[in-house]
Amino acid sequence: MRRTKRPFGGLINDIKRRYPFYLSDFKDGLSSSCVAAAIFMYFAALCGAITFGGLMSDKTQNVIGISETLISGSWTGVIMALFGTQPLLIIGTTGPLLLFDESLYNFCLANELEFLTVRVYVGAWMGIIALAIACIEGSVLVRLFTRFTEEIFTGLISIIYIVETFMKLYNYFVRNPLLHEYSFGPDTNNITYPLYVAEMKVTRWPWNGTEEILRLENVRELLPNHDRIRLPINQPNTALMCTILCLGTFLGAYYLRIFRNSHYLGRSARRAFGDFGVPISIVVFVLIDYLLMVKTEKLLVPEGLSPTMPGRNWFVSPIGYEKPIPLWMALACAVPALLVYILVFMETQISE
Q1: 332 backbone dihedrals φ, ψ, rounded to 5°
Q2: How far apart (Å, rounded) are the C-alpha atoms in residues 232 and 229?
Q3: Looking only at Cα atoms, what is the longest distance across the chain?
Q4: Are 122 and 337 in contact (CB under 8 A)?
Q5: What is the pLDDT of residues 300-314, one digit of tens each?
Q6: What is the pLDDT of residues 53-83, one digit of tens each?
Q7: Which of 168, 199, 230 is the last residue of a domain?
Q8: Residue 75 belongs to a domain
Q9: Residues 100, 341: contact at Cβ < 8 Å?
Q10: Domain range spanning residue 208?
Q11: How far is CA 215 from CA 177, 202, 211, 221, 222, in A?
Q12: Tell me, what DSSP letter sits at residue 245?
């Protein structure tokens, strides 16, 4: 926490302190006592990447999704563990970065700019700012942070998690509302139609696949018995099942977490249930969702190492594909880069 008053002096001292123990870190990590910690860190990093990957996919219309967050989190995590001298650090997308990317995406959409190209310039400026901060030993500013600063920032991240969860549940109820009457299948003879529906779009098949609007004054007269029509079918159990899975996963993880302080089983078993309560709860309720065969929304994950958006290349052109990015915009990206670097600095120095 003291400045050496030399360029990159703090970084050089960190390397000198850590270099003698570099090989022993690998040897100690191969012991059986580290297996549980490694598995716990794996699930901690994986759950965060999947959670925010799914949220990022919703916010950016699949431009950045689970594939991108998993791959970026994995290779940057390996680099951080090998060269960053902090193998216990779990890196990846978090709540403040999610809000930043959402705001940046909306800004690019409103100004007809390519989001990924702008994000590349923001990342490049972040690297330059990070080198400058390391050069002047900016990490000593951590000693000015108080406990209030830490808890306010970690509270922000927690609130973002909670709010995004209830927003997704609300959207499930909007897309699959609870009605008094439902359509359960393509058999038009046994369907009870809601009386308050004014019109509906149907697709006639298998002849030409065209769509037309039918005004439902007398539904059974408009739909002949011999004419098979694909009707829009509401899924009455989707929203309820998603609510059960959400609350069940949380309560399962919560009670397994406090199970380590109970008097049941042995000490090692209680610690295992407490440490792995979150992944155990997730696996249990994923199996419940799979076995009950109720239609629920699944995450969009492409097969293999391919981007979330079909047809997009992994390489992002720095000049843009459809419309070249102006030079002034590339330079102006330094401003949001500074703001997002402050978020990353706070997360790395405090929350992690």
Answers
A1: -70, -20
A2: 10
A3: 87
A4: yes
A5: 777 777 787 777 778
A6: 888 888 888 888 888 888 888 888 888 878 7
A7: 230
A8: yes
A9: no
A10: 188-230
A11: 22, 11, 13, 11, 9
A12: H
